[in-house]
Amino acid sequence: MLTASPVRVALRALPLALAGAVAAPALVQAQAPSASNTITVQVDKPGAPVSKTMYGLFFEDINFAADGGLYPELVKNKSFEVPDQALVGWKARKGGFTLETYAVMSQQPLSAANPHYLRIGTRTANADAGVSNEGFRGMGVKQGAEYTLSLYARRPAGSNLSGLLVRLENEKGEALAETKITGLTSEWKQYKVALRPTGTTAKAHLDISLDGAGVVDLDVVSLFPKDTYNQRPNGLRPDLVQLLKDMQPGFLRFPGGCIVEGRTLAERYQWKTTIGDVGARTPLVNRWNMEFRHRSTPDYYQSFGLGFFEYFQLSEDIGAEPLPVLNVGMACQFNSGELAPMSRAGGPNAGEAGPGTGDVSLDIFIQDALDLVEFANGPVSSPWGAKRAAMGHPASFNLKYLGIGNEQWGPQYLERYEPFAKALRAKYPDIKIVSSAGPSPDGDLFTAASKRLGELKADLIDEHYYAKPEWFRQNAGRYDSYARTGPKIFAGEYAAQSVAIGSPDNKNSWDCAISEAAFMTGLERNADVVVMASYAPLFAHVDAWQWTPDMIWFDNLRAYGTPNYYVQKLFGTNRGSAVLPVQRGAGAKNGDDNLFSSAVVDAQTGDIVVKLVNYSAQARPVTLNLQGAKKLGKAGKAIVLASTDLNAVNSLEQPTNVAPKEESFQVASPKVSYTLAPYSFTTLRIPGKR
């Protein structure tokens, strides 16, 4: 994921400057096409197979995508363990004037994994003596739905407190649900109660007050919806998961993105700390919390309630191949650029990962990768396979892909990648390794990385591109000239930027989305080279984002797909099984006169699927010459995504302002006529011979 670093902007934006110098077009009349609008689809000469992983998802915990988003825990900082911000998310009710004790403590904690807890108390009974949790820009609750409140409590010596008052309030302070917790003891004990709100709001908050005078210790305070995807305990937000599943994604890449690297190695993502008991997972600062001054979010951290087990489970739920990405021994090069030493005294695997680079060698990172494969695929008799089974999944997750490093570049990455890849291939030769070509899609660093990774016979090279919409249209032929015998390409991060890279004013406009569709026809036409592709970032909270544009936006109750989402969905749900060669008349190339095309055959249905982008203000009649087609149905289906307003966007209030519409069309012969709408992306499904 791209940061706002001036160095990064210089590195990445300047090579694209010429392509992005033209302002996004308004509603101007396009010139009449000069090349033939006859498109020959060689139905009888199917080409390369389209990988089942061709179109997938890139997930990163940015824009409150995990905590406050896909992971539906409503309490922020439930265990008082956020580094340097032990009370973030919490405040004393009524300004704290009714509390005589209000402090985070560490004496005789709940457990070694939860060394801190909150102590509150008062000598005089007062209904306002208590604390409130704000949630993630509020708490989204629905009328009549069930929410499980759970917490650990203890009555310290000398306290005679009878119990706790729990109250869920809306933004006006009106009660939506309330209950009492009684039976406090001098030992830590977990209490659970069900809350059913009497109203719906996106901005609720949770209050916990003392029922009388006394003192109480609190820890692991959770408010979790019962309605999760597949009704799973510690499950995920169902509407967001459904949006993902509806795309029929081929893979899910996680957990990022720059989140993998961390600003320092001490802040890197370590998958082993994200599994096991949810209440015992130690929070970590989110590296995006202060990255952008214009969108500072100092309360942003990672609770890891959504951890590696849950990511694997999500992949399984939506039918996607899991693609975890691990740190290669390098912190983000746009932050500290901290490096783990290549080796250290004591030999491979000596010691455990520490808080910095002093006692963390590359051997530790490599062992983490080997252990991850065992966690995902190993038998229950293996140490890490047993941990997976203990979490409720004895069967293998069938991991096939693993990323080494996120967006690193230069000789420091390549020298670490090589022993990493060597160790993985020696122990797990069937695992396909995804390597990094850096943050820019061209330039000396990109060229050097691509060359060296080719020499090392890399399986997949991850290429990233963020640029103005024009760049995507102009580069639809990017992979036409790539070597057919080298590593396969993973287009791991891309998104058209309506204003500038990293600008807070970027919009998910139709201009961006249709330009991405044009580019994707080039990916599809080159499916023998490109085997994975994913838009980035995936999610953004409307009240807590750091980066835009993003594919899916949400608040605490609602969500919508952008025009970019629908482009991705149309490609994913019409992936097909093999490429059909496509040729334009009069020697025109893909993209000439702003007409872009690709075609596949769907072996499962027998359909011929043609994707057409008309980036023109005029309607455009086209003729499809289905060469070699032996038997065709009489009626085809057109799925049209179009808007004459290139600045059109979707929103929570208008979630389908730009959304696909279906219509039928006649198929009288192998020469099919169809008129493309202005500024449209059209998918034509023509019934063919099975």
Write structural notes for this entry.
This protein is 17% helix and 27% strand. It is of the alpha/beta class. Among the domains are: 57-72 and 229-467, Alpha-Beta Barrel (TIM Barrel); 90-225, Sandwich (Jelly Rolls), CATH 2.60.120. The chain has an eight-stranded parallel β-sheet with strand order 2-14-17-18-19-20-21-22. Strands 3, 6, 7, 9, 10 and 12 form a six-stranded antiparallel β-sheet that branches. A six-stranded antiparallel β-sheet has the order 26-28-29-34-31-32, covered by helices on one side. α9 (510-525) links the parallel β21 (488-496) and β22 (530-535). α4 (362-377) packs across α5 (383-390) and α4 (362-377) packs across α6. The chain is globular. The two termini are 42 Å apart. Residues 3-35 and 345-358 have low confidence and may be disordered. It comes from Hymenobacter edaphi.
Short description:
Pfam families: Alpha-L-AF_C, ASD1_dom, CBM_4_9. GO terms for molecular function: alpha-L-arabinofuranosidase activity. The protein contains 10 helices and 34 strands.
